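User: Teach me something about this protein's shape.
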Amino acid sequence: MKHILLAVIGLLPVYAQDAVSIRVDAGARLGPLRPVWSFFGYDEPNYTYMKDGKKLLTELASLSPVVVHVRAHNMLTSGDGVAALKWGSTNAYTEDAAGNPKYDWTIVDRIVDTYVERKMKPVIEVGFMPEALSVKPQPYRHNWDPSQPYRNIYTGWAYPPRDYKKWSDLVFAWVGHSVQRYGREEVASWYWEVWNEPNIAYWQGTPEEYHKLYDYTADAIKRALPAIRVGGPTSTGPGGDQAAKFLRDFLEHVVRGKNHATAKTGSPIDYITFHAKGRPKVVDGHVQMGSEFQMRDVNKGFEIVASFPELKKTPIIIGESDPEGCAACSVRFNPQNAYRNGTMYSSYTAATFARKYELAAKHGINFEGAVTWAFEFEDQPYFDGFRDLATNGIDKPVLNVFRMYGLMHGERVKAETSGALSTDQMVASGVKDKPDINAMATRGERTLSAMVWNYHDDDTAAAPAKIALTMAGIPAGVTRALVRHYRIDENHSNAYTVWKAMGSPQKPGAEQYAALEAAGRLHMLSSPAWVMTKSGTVELGFALSRQGVSLVQVSW
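Assistant: First, the predicted structure itself:
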């Protein structure tokens, strides 16, 4: 009878020799679960208050009880507020004919209001350069699309200010306006950071000029509200030598350098942020992810911060943490991005986030968060291969990984598995040989949860893995427990396969749209069911397809 019940809920004991054994021990505690996953970001800030943008933000805010943080580019860029790919504008700063500054916070407020109304916390990116302040303002507005070279986006907004005093006054005024509108306590709870990726073409100045920009910006922020957390340098890929040097030189500057704004030693730094990206490519006709490149960035960035005794305990936010570097590049022009619509993106996310926790523990640093640079692209074709969480209001499988995280709480506990790759292996070479069949687990007051994934860098077919899952450490005296099993795979929590089965409609009818909305939500593999415990242990078995993710929760 017990086996029949387990089969009904999709959990049948698996004792075969070829099964992957996973053991979760509620008694082996690893410390509180830090919700490092609760950060999201995007290039196009004007999507924030549009129809599908507001819908997705509402969903992100409701992922879990923890606070969700949101970061966006182009918060000071000049323009009319009309959204476009890799573009946005607020027109916050202009000058009159005599060169006197004029501030207009209308669009900035509309963006931030949308976050605050949902009790989200902005990560305020102080950038980019207003047209009236740029040392090289023309050309300013780009009209990039995915068919063009990426370098075409870098126009007048990417240059240093012609007047650092006016730039400082702008930042001071922005903080002051925010305090007046939202209150000191609210604004102090946000993160504020200086620019984006100043070690590449996003900054058309020298590293020293970025240090100067940082000093003036941080000084203005702290003068306006000392309690604000300010950070930088938001640089890219410290896994590479030049990027590693940029990060190291910046940290040396904020610790021991001469401050350009105050002439004192050092500059305020309340958190440190850098970016980590993978490199997918097409191999033998299929997508092969480059997870090792992202893991190397994370590993090296943590290592560099840890090498500064003064900064080792300073919070770190990986300001963009993704499989590659261009969210707005679609599959039509970049076939390596074909991972984005289906379950490869979701399983990659599960496997790599777990390694960020492990690398943070290895280096003994203070890991605060990792920004998933994916949002939505308003009024674009359905499932067009952008790196987004939803398409036309339809959730993609990857969003359900974050819903799974939202169901996990309490303390992290040990999960041992016979099918896992080591973190060192992922840093060295990714997941190119055998799959990474692994788990991350948490313990709540009356709940034990295990997220289990079957990930491989190569998007090729493979037989499902047999999983033998042991959930141990359930309190003595508990004789039965309720099992819930959530699943992301080809047939669960996956609107993409449903959309393809419909014939890939670009204008779905009302019934089709409702069906896609329902398919995009997080689903259970089967109905919850009670199982018997034995000596504080529940043993469960199930099959998990390649690129599948399960969340198994045992509660009592």
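Now, about its shape. The first strand starts at residue 20 and ends at 32. The chain has a mean pLDDT of 96. If you'd like, I can walk through any region in more detail.
User: That's plenty for now, thanks!
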